Amino acid sequence: MRIRSFRLGDYVAITTIWRETGLEKKEAESMDDLAKQLAWDSELVLVAEAEERVVGVIVGTLDGTRGYFYRLAVNPNYQGHGVGKELVVALEKRLKQRGATRVIIMVNQNNKTVIPFYHSLGYEVQEYITLSKSLTSSP
After folding, report:
1. What confidence tens digit (pLDDT) does each residue in 82-99 have?
2. N or C: which end of the chain has fewer CB within 10 A?
3. Is 73 within 8 Å of 114 (Cβ atoms)?
4. Could you tell me if 82 and 100 are in contact, meaning their C-beta atoms sit under 8 angstroms apart?
5. Is 44 buried (19+), middle (13-18) or exposed (0-12) by CB count in 10 A?
6. How would residue 137 be classed by pLDDT, with cut points 50, 70 and 90?
7. CA-based diameter of the chain, in Å?
8. What is the dihedral of CA 9, 88, 108, 122, to 10 degrees?
9. CB atoms < 10 A from the CB of 94, how many?
10. Confidence (pTM)
11. Which neighbouring-strand residues pair with 73?
């Protein structure tokens, strides 16, 4: 398996993985979000390749000394084989090289099945409440 930076030709493969794993939003939103992150820092969007095909993806971002990642997804046929772990470790390394001292992730509270995976990588549940507001709807 090889971890590398995202290339434009990977878009169909990663959106397919997001769809297969339930992370796909509306296609236009996904492309817009991805385009913004690529413009901000394309080296923080990583893919995993196995057998010359994209089998996993992670999208990271940096805010000062805090690194974040989201949309970690692995092709269901490759889950449980260390792909997600390798993506997280590779992204953490890139974030640290850019000055990050902490990595923060958000997990949907209804997606409790991923918590043991993150615990195994050293992540701890924090006692925060996350609030959000959509800026796309009318006031």
Report:
1. 999 999 999 999 999 999
2. C
3. no
4. no
5. buried
6. low
7. 49
8. 180
9. 18
10. 0.85
11. 57
Q: Where are the beta strands (DSSP E) in 51-90?
A: 53-63, 66-74
H-helix or E-strand spanning residue 2: strand 2-5
Which 8-state DSSP code applies to residue 125?
-
Q: What angle do CA 113, 102, 21 make, to 5 degrees?
A: 30
Structure tokens at 106: 């958000």
Which strands, in side-by-side order, build the sheet including 66-74? 2-5, 45-50, 53-63, 66-74, 102-105
Q: How many CB atoms lie within 10 A of CB 114?
A: 13
Q: Please state the length of the chain.
A: 139
- Name the 3-class secondary structure at 42: helix
Residues 6+ apart with CB under 8 A from 62: 41, 44, 68, 95, 98, 99, 100
Closest alpha carbon to 61 in 25, 16, 1, 106: 106
Residue 8 burial by CB count (10 A; 0-12/13-18/19+): exposed, middle or buried? exposed
